[in-house]
């Protein structure tokens, strides 16, 4: 796939369709592959990478990239195309300045899963088809790819690219996912149990803002948490659980617009399952206003900024809110 | 720092009995920025207002907090007071310590504490207030009346007489409404048609009135003084200009088995029809559900016989857009459906009828040409039982909780007229209470009892059972004699409750006018502004606001007209300065606000902005039209970046109030 992508990127650079390419390059470690922009065939040859660790969603980079001179080629996984559609609907990207190539995706790996399987001191990872051969300081180890899938990929919502100018390979389909199972478990807890769960998770937050910075729905010109006039910017937490408010506010902020790409949890250095907050909103919206997938249809009006006569009455929300 | 004056009103004992007003004034005096605090018996009185004016001048106040009744009551009063003393009226804030405090608390200590907190919140807000100046907008000097019953006709005539053009939109093929179906009118017993039809003709012939019959309001945009309304002219399949109303088509039409809605289905009409002889406009209408030509493509007889060539089977609905300064709702009422009241056997026997059906049975233009005959066998009924409050004053969900108001009087009228025309008839009226508060109303009812010998029985009917001999067994209780009654009646007349027309609720949504739980339109103030909707520029006429008889409807219709005229004589309207605006540096251009704006006040523009490092960038940002914005604030909560803010109710002001309350 990597060769095919580089070949196609070079063609599009050569015929002038695009003047740069948004893709991935190797990071400090073999598994931390990082988004990057390539401006020439040489740069592509030197460092363009596509492998099982290219989990990063490139769509958010298009907010800045699509406003620059000329057209940018973006390689987008199915998840990333949902984000691009949502950003297009919100006028956050200039879609005409983007040449999107949709990629098939069978799920990306999570290095934490490899580490959990016992791989410490990773020096290299070889792709063996259905398995990874992990070279470590302590010898080689083989892990099945299925066991190293990221949570969001194990519960994949869709393998379908919903917007693209060109596809590499076959388009996939919307999946029958179990992504709300954990939300349901949380809903079935008592309020005290749920509080304890979130206290355990969110107390680890170090407020590095990685979730916000990676989130494709968080693209405000001026983030409320960075705006000194908002009165809530840069305040020091009074206790270890205070950052819950940051996450709850952020979840409300992206409610109805979150495509459930899972970037928040992927980038969290403290491994907080932030996607569960967003999924709770998605699940509620689905149940109250009918199934809705943000980003699936660029022309759709989000249920929270639309009104129909079929909308549930406030009392329904209230009754549900009690449990 | 603002220099704030706090004025605590006693409202007589309304506030002072439950709130220690002296302590409120004393405590609030030590709040930051407060330089003056006083309490007074009636702050809204002239002396009270002078107290405020003097304090503004003497203490050089820059902000005023009035702790009093709801701002809905006197905010405008106190803003005028401040303006008279040279202060910007939008530097006044009201702390509602009456409706939201003294009236709902019993414990004086608790109420006093809450009043202080509410005052503190208002002070916190005033600190962030900025002087605001309202803009002006022009007034379209034309009114729309929705509904062409007696209410709509009267309102339209009065507005037209004052010299303003008025359009009436009526969904039926003719104006006239319910009153056209009535026989006699209480308490004077003049014939409804005799007094209504001249008004219908007046309306049709008035140079300032245009009637859109067989039409409905499709869409309403704009705001007071500047409404833009789309009207759907439904296809009649008849050219109303060419049609002379000769009625030949209705005679020749072979499809004559269409239930006649004007006679409530008690006889039939043809598929092409004129609702009644005095219809206005007197134009035929084809009923596409029954017309043979429309259904099968064959027939066309009406087209052949029409000498005017008015029939056009290809006619389509037409949409017209008109501009108005004011809109009057006159959508009227309907009797409720009686499916929930099986005990009265309405669905089982044709001889159990509603009072409106009874009107048609006694009307000279009705199905029996005015002779009272039983629908089942066409014989004279000799025992008639009237049942009042069928679905009115009814708890438990199957009827209406309110009193329908008109039934006592029309039932007395029916009973009296029956006894007068057919003295050999026994007439019984079952009632819960007889309510006759109106000019000459009680005299009228007493005449029915004393002169005409109508048997009034206090109690409800429990069951009506059709018998094998064709009579109806009526079982009821007589609460005064304390006994159960069983009567064999030939005819049972049910005084069905009345409810707002079904078109009212969707219309309220289009008008953004509020309704109560019974779908009656809400007035701006139940006592002091009874013909205005809380939505500016929308007025209420007739039974759409609550059950009303004809005299009351006509007076309210004229009152609504007076309010409309008062609006239309103005050349310009002062706008509301509390409108939204977008902080362009924070706006993402995401269109969320545009999507939720009910007034279409938000558009987007591409603007060039200076960016860091001496660069510029074109950004898409929201722009609010202050003349169209009504300050509802929907955009401010939809805005993901917090760029949208509302003058007078800014996010920071509201947060300051919350902080003050939580302090």
Could you explain how this protein is built, in words?
The complex is a heterodimer of chains A (323) and B (663). Chain A starts with a helix and ends with a helix. The radius of gyration of chain A is 21 Å and the shape is globular. Chain A has helices spanning 2-14, 41-47, 61-65, 78-89, 111-116, 151-154, 181-188, 191-202, 210-214, 244-254, 263-267, 275-289, 314-322, and strands at residues 20-25, 34-38, 72-76, 98-102, 122-128, 131-136, 139-144, 166-167. Chain A folds into 3 domains: 1-108 and 158-176, no CATH class; 111-148, no CATH class; 179-323, no CATH class. Chain A is of the alpha/beta class. Chain A has 13 helices and 8 strands. Chain B has 663 residues and is of the alpha/beta class. Chain B folds into 5 domains: 4-128, Rossmann fold, CATH 3.40.50; 143-234 and 317-332 and 501-568, 3-Layer(bba) Sandwich (FAD/NAD(P)-binding domain); 248-305, no CATH class; 334-499, FAD/NAD(P)-binding domain (3-Layer(bba) Sandwich), CATH 3.50.50; 580-647, 2-Layer Sandwich (Alpha-Beta Plaits), CATH 3.30.70. Helix content of chain B is 28%, strand content 25%. The longest helix of chain B is centred in the N-terminal third of the chain and has 21 residues, at 108-128. The interface between A and B is medium-sized, with 20 and 21 residues.
């Amino acid at each position: 796939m990597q060769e095919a992508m580089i070949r196609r990127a070079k063609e599009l650079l050569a015929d002038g369709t695009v003047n740069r390419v948004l893709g991935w390059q190797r990071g400090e470690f073999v598994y931390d592959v990082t988004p990057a922009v390539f401006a020439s065939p040489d740069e592509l040859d030197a460092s363009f990478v596509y492998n099982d660790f290219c989990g990063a969603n490139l769509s958010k980079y298009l907010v800045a990239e699509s406003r620059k001179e000329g057209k940018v080629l973006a390689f987008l996984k199915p998840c990333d195309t949902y984000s691009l559609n949502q950003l297009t609907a919100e006028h956050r990207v200039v879609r005409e300045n983007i040449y999107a190539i949709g990629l098939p995706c069978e799920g990306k790996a999570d290095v934490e899963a490899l580490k959990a399987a016992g791989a410490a001191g990773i020096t290299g990872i070889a792709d063996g088809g259905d398995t990874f051969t992990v070279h470590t300081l302590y010898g080689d180890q083989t892990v099945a790819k299925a066991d190293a899938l990221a949570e969001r990929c194990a519960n994949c919502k869709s393998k379908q690219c919903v917007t693209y100018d060109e596809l590499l390979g076959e388009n996939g389909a919307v999946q029958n996912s179990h992504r709300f199972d954990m939300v349901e478990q949380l809903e079935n807890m008592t309020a005290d149990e749920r509080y304890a769960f979130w206290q355990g998770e969110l107390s680890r937050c170090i407020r590095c803002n990685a979730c916000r910075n990676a989130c494709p729905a968080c693209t405000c010109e001026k983030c409320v948490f960075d705006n000194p006039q908002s009165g809530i910017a840069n305040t020091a937490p009074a206790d270890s659980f205070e950052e819950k408010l940051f996450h709850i506010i952020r979840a409300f902020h992206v409610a109805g617009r979150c495509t459930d790409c899972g970037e928040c949890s992927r980038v969290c250095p403290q491994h907080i399952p932030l996607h569960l907050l967003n999924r709770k909103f998605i699940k509620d919206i689905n149940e109250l206003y009918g199934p809705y997938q943000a980003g699936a249809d660029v022309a759709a009006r989000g249920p929270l900024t639309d009104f129909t006569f079929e909308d549930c009455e406030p009392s329904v929300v209230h009754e549900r809110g009690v449990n | 720092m603002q220099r704030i004056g706090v004025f605590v009103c006693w409202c007589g004992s309304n506030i002072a009995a439950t709130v220690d007003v002296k302590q409120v004034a004393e405590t609030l005096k030590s709040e930051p920025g407060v330089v003056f605090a006083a309490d007074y018996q009636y702050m809204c009185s002239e002396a009270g207002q002078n107290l405020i004016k003097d304090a503004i001048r003497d203490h050089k106040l820059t902000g005023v907090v009035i702790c009093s009744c709801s701002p809905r009551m006197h905010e405008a009063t106190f803003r005028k007071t401040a303006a008279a003393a040279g202060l910007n009226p939008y530097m006044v804030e009201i702390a509602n310590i009456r409706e939201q405090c003294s009236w709902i608390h019993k414990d004086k200590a608790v109420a006093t504490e809450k009043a202080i907190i509410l005052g503190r919140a208002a002070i916190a807000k005033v600190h962030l207030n900025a002087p605001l100046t309202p803009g002006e907008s022009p007034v379209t000097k034309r009114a729309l009346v929705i509904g062409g019953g007696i209410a709509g006709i009267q309102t339209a005539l009065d507005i037209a007489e004052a010299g303003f053009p008025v359009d009436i939109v009526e969904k039926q093929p003719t104006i006239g409404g319910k009153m056209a179906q009535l026989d006699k009118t209480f308490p004077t017993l003049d014939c409804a048609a005799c007094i209504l039809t001249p008004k219908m003709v007046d309306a049709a012939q008035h140079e300032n009135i245009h009637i859109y019959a067989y039409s409905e309001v499709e869409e309403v945009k704009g705001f007071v003084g500047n409404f833009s309304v789309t009207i759907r002219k439904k296809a009649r399949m008849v050219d109303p200009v060419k049609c002379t109303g000769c009625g030949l088509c209705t005679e020749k039409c072979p499809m004559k088995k269409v239930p006649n809605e004007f006679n409530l289905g008690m006889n039939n009409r043809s598929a092409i029809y004129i609702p009644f002889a005095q219809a206005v406009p007197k134009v035929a209408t084809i009923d596409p559900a029954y017309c043979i030509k429309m259904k099968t493509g064959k027939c066309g007889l009406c087209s052949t016989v029409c000498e005017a060539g008015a029939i056009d089977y290809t006619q389509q609905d037409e949409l017209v857009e008109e501009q108005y300064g004011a809109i009057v709702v006159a959508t009227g009422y309907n009797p409720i459906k009686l499916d929930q009241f099986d005990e009265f056997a309405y669905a089982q026997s044709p001889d159990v009828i509603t009072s409106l059906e009874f009107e048609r049975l006694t009307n000279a233009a009705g199905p029996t040409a005015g002779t009272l005959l039983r629908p089942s066998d066409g014989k004279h009924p000799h025992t008639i039982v009237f049942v009042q409050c069928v679905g009115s004053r009814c708890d438990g969900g199957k009827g209406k909780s309110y009193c329908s108001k008109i039934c006592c009087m029309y039932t007395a009228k029916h009973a009296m007229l029956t006894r007068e025309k057919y003295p050999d008839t026994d007439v019984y009226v079952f009632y819960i209470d007889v309510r006759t508060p109106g000019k000459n109303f009680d005299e009228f009812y007493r005449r029915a009892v004393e002169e005409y010998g109508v048997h009034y029985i206090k109690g409800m009917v429990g069951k009506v059972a059709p018998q094998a001999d064709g009579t109806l067994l009526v079982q009821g209780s007589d609460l005064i004699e304390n006994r159960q009654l069983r009567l064999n009646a030939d005819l049972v007349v049910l005084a069905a409750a009345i409810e707002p027309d079904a078109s009212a609720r969707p219309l309220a949504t289009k008008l953004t006018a509020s309704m109560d739980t019974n779908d009656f339109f809400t007035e701006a103030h139940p006592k002091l502004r009874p013909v205005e909707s809380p939505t500016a520029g929308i007025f209420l006429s007739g039974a759409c606001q609550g059950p009303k008889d004809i005299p009351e409807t006509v007076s309210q219709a004229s009152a609504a007209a007076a309010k409309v005229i008062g609006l239309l004589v103005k050349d310009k309207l002062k706008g509301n300065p509390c409108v939204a605006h977008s902080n362009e540096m924070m706006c993402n251009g995401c269109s969320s606000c545009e999507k939720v704006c009910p007034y279409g006040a938000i558009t987007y523009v591409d603007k060039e902005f200076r960016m860091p490092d001496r660069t510029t960038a074109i950004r898409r940002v929201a722009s609010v039209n202050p003349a169209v914005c009504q300050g509802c604030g929907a955009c401010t909560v939809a805005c993901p970046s917090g760029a949208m803010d509302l003058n007078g109710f800014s996010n920071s002001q509201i947060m300051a109030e919350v902080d003050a309350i939580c302090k």
